[in-house]
Every structure is written in C-alpha cells, then in structure tokens.
Amino acid sequence: MAVGADHAGYALKEAVKKSLQELAVEVIDVGTFSVESVDYPDYAAQVALRVARGACERGLLICGTGIGMAIAANKVPGARAALCYNTETARLSRAHNEANILVLGGRMTSAAEAKEIIKVWLATPFEGGRHQTRLNKISALEKGFGAASST
Ligand code: RB5
Asked: Which of 63, 67, 74, 103 to mutate to test the pocket of ligand 1 (most atoms within 8 A of CB)?
C-alpha cells in the first residue's frame, strides 16, 4: 500500500502505519515526514500514480479534511479515491465503488477511528454486478467518451 499525507495528515499517517504493519500490509510511505507545510497534490499524485500504474495495489492519503487529497487523486485515470469518515462509508466504498485509494481527514478522524476504518476498508471485497457497469462508465468518462455515451 502506498501511503501519503500532507502536514495536516502527518500525525494520523504515523499513527496508522503501525496498525497497517500489524495487519501485514507492506507500506510504501511517500511522505510527508514532518509537520512543515507542504502541498497535498504532490502526495496525492505520488500515491495515485503508483496505484493507477499497478506498482501498489492500494493507496492511503491523508490531509486535514481529506477533501483536497480526494479531489487531486481522482484526477489520475484509474484512481478511485474515496473519502471515508466512518466504517460504513469505508465498506460501501469498496463494495460498490471498488475504491483503490482510501482518503482520511487527519483533522476529522481520530487514530482509533482511522484504524477501524482501514480494517474494514481492507477486508471488504467489491460486489461487482451492477456496480461493475457503473465503474465501466467511470472508465469511459476518463477516456473522454462520457458525454457521448450519456446522450
Ligand atoms: C492544509 O491546511 C489543508 O488545507 C489540507 O490539509 C486539506 O485539508 C485540504 O483539503
């Protein structure tokens, strides 16, 4: 799993890294490595590109709210970044959206909540079926056929 955070997500990233290791998840930490102010799109890009290119199976991104990281990561074709604030949204983001990047808000979510969210997110399989049809339409949007197919 590729893991990245900005300064507002740094503390939560460090806190959850240990539990990822306990879950036997191999972690590639792309930074940031301190609370010094940085720009979240730089880390979103590093994680999303690794996931979209298949270098890493999953990604985890953390900024203050999670919003900026999600917006930035979802600009990378193939990235499906889901901002989750509880275990139910984490479960649904896997079951229905096959999210390959989990986004958390470091100023919104405690370390204890984050650990539960991550556990559920990693354990939930994609349901496929009608949800696959919808993912195919997202892929079409990425290829620029979205407008044509909806008319
Ligand atoms: C940084 O102050 C903050 O704007 C950032 O971490 C994130 O919340 C953006 O969406």
From this structure: 63
User: What residues does each domain of the chain span?
Assistant: 2-142
34-52: pLDDT as tens digits = 999 999 999 999 999 999 9
Q: Give how far Cα 76 sits from Cα of 37, 69, 89, Å.
A: 23, 12, 22
Residue 56 confidence (pLDDT): 98
Please identify every residue annotated as catalytic: 63, 96
- Report the CATH architecture of 2-142: 3-Layer(aba) Sandwich (3.40)
